[in-house]
């Protein structure tokens, strides 16, 4: 029996707002269920999301809104939200990019030792699939994207290196999927990789956007596979072995800069993946903003989103080799070549970085008063 495909209803931000108005006051679970069946075609801004979260108090509704916003993070905002300012001339465009490169170097060199809380939400859908062989006529219905787990950890940044401390958190077999999806490298390696690689590919002006504190300049870049340092890892091929398949992938995305000083506010990275790869989507978005550490203000990650489309229950690891962890999965030989698009699973990680604090270590030397002479 063929497994029926599922298609979410695609809506604009304005249409989503109309939907929220129409269903306002209904039970939390009912609203969330309707929202999970939608898919945005435009980026939902953080300001608009925060406004709606205040109006819709249900916890399930808020999680559904977050999932919708995260999926839309790789799209352009609604056209009406963008400034109509003419594009800067070519020389001004180059100068702004040079400012961005200088700001990254300066920021990373001045970051102190610190620690921050990392709050993590995992969402996934359940692809429709056939039931057990003994009941060949049955199938499991599709379940839209929904929250399945929450985690927290402490990110330690010491001597310009990032370390994740899980403390006493217990990780079971299901939780290992979450760990394999998590990104690392937001505090430097991702920025350095994209800026270096985009110089070997194409980097062009795109458009203006309206940010929280002013206009932002958006550049689009594309890096071919031959110049890329973005590595996808598949474990294990053949299935059941310990062999890890590694491949560098081309990728593309956007860099969003402060129009005045070139500070990077937002970065997206989308892998150029195609079948027969067992993963066909590998996207990452990181937002940067001012945070206070030890009485001084620094530009650090405040939020990230990782989005993947992959074979179900086949997660492992991928990313920038030895620097960035992102998403990968277990390959399964010939099975990966024939996996239909409707059987792939969407996995989404929403991460927020909070409570930045200076990391200090103290050493105390105890001196004994009038110590007795030791006998020889």
Which key phrases capture this entry?
376 residues; alpha+beta; 2 domains; three-stranded antiparallel β-sheet
Estimated helix fraction: 10-25%
Low-confidence stretches: 170-178, 235-241, 313-339
| Topology order in helix (H) and strand (E) letters | EHHEHHHEEEEEHHEEEEEEEEEHE
Total discrete domains: 2
Shape: globular
Number of helices: 8
Radius of gyration: 23 Å
Q: How big a fraction of the residues is strand?
A: 35-45%
Overall mean pLDDT stands at 79
For the largest sheet, list the strands in their spatial order.
7-6-3-17-15-14-13-12-9-8
Largest sheet: 10 strands, antiparallel
- End-to-end separation: 90 Å
Structural class: alpha+beta
Number of strands: 17
Give an overview in words:
- The longest helix has 21 residues, at 90-110.
- This protein has helices at 13-23, 28-36, 46-55, 59-71, 90-110, 173-181, 189-198, 334-337; strands spanning 9-11, 38-40, 114-126, 129-130, 139-140, 143-158, 161-165, 202-210, 215-223, 230-235, 244-248, 251-258, 264-271, 279-293, 296-310, 319-320, 345-358.
- The radius of gyration is 23 Å and the shape is globular.
- The chain is built from eight helices and 17 strands.
- Helix 2 runs parallel beside helix 4 (59-71) and helix 3 packs antiparallel against helix 4 (59-71).
- It is of the alpha+beta class and 376 residues long.
- It folds into two domains: 9-80, no CATH class; 98-358, no CATH class.
- Strand 4 and strand 5 form a beta hairpin.
